[in-house]
Amino acid sequence: MREFVLPAMRAVPGSLAARLGSCRVTLLPTFDDPARTSEWTCTGSRLVIRVASLGEGHDVALEALTCLGQALWERLSGAEESTYWRLLDAEILAQVSGEIDEQALDAKRLLLSDRRHAGDPQCLAQYGLASFAATAAEYVHCFWHDVTIRTGEEYLPARQLRRRLELLAQWFPPDPGYTLFPAPSGSRYGAGAAASCAIGHRIRR
């Protein structure tokens, strides 16, 4: 909790935290269902997140951030949700096959597997939720520590990932002292910061 979960939660921008309200995170050894890794509920005005603590601490923290993203999806305005759906539509039309995490990738593959699934509102809703939750988790991840982009057909290309992160930054701006992308070469942060990764670098001033 001290080494991974709390630092990850403290990286959540204040504007995003304000949209979610009060949040409590509890770590459990396991769930009764061994396949379950996390769950969240809203109790009154409080968001309650429970995460299985077995496994790597970094993965546990990302699971908690993904729960935040799932809860945030339900708090988007109609205009915000429509904008995100248009972004996903553009990615699909551009034949982008990858996604940010495995859950979103599985939902996308199911949606695009055949005409029946492509026309199923439930499959579409599941993909939208999984995609946005992973995007929101990655957005906060960028402020938590330096992030390296993975490449390949299973992963979202850097250009599309950047567009998603820029959209989240418009809605939920970074806190003072944080920046989403590397400083340009020649800035006072130097070329080393920009070279460490193509996107999602955190600099704390």
Write the layout of secondary structure elements.
Blueprint: H1 5-10, H2 14-20, E1 22-28, E2 38-43, E3 46-52, H3 57-73, H4 78-93, H5 102-111, H6 115-118, H7 121-144, H8 158-171, H9 191-195
Parallel strand pairs: 1-3
Antiparallel strand pairs: 2-3
Helix pairs in contact: 3-7, 4-8, 5-7, 7-8
Question: What does it look like?
Answer:
The protein has 205 residues and is mainly alpha-helical. The protein has 9 helices and 3 strands, in the order H-H-E-E-E-H-H-H-H-H-H-H. The chain has helices at 5-10, 14-20, 57-73, 78-93, 102-111, 115-118, 121-144, 158-171, 191-195; strands at 22-28, 38-43, 46-52. The chain has a 3-stranded mixed β-sheet with strand order 1-3-2, covered by helices on one side. Helix 5 (102-111) runs antiparallel to helix 7 and helix 7 crosses helix 8. The protein is globular and about 45 Å long. The model is unreliable at 186-205 (pLDDT under 50).
Quick structural overview:
This protein has helices spanning 5-10, 14-20, 57-73, 78-93, 102-111, 115-118, 121-144, 158-171, 191-195, and strands at residues 22-28, 38-43, 46-52. It is mainly alpha-helical.
Largest sheet: 3 strands, mixed
Radius of gyration: 17 Å
The count of helical stretches stands at 9
The geometry reads as globular
Tell me the helix content.
40-55%
Beta-strand percent range: 5-15%
Q: Stretches where pLDDT falls below 50 for ≥5 residues?
A: 186-205
SS elements, strand count: 3
Mean pLDDT: 88
**What is the helix/strand order?**
HHEEEHHHHHHH
Structural class: mainly alpha
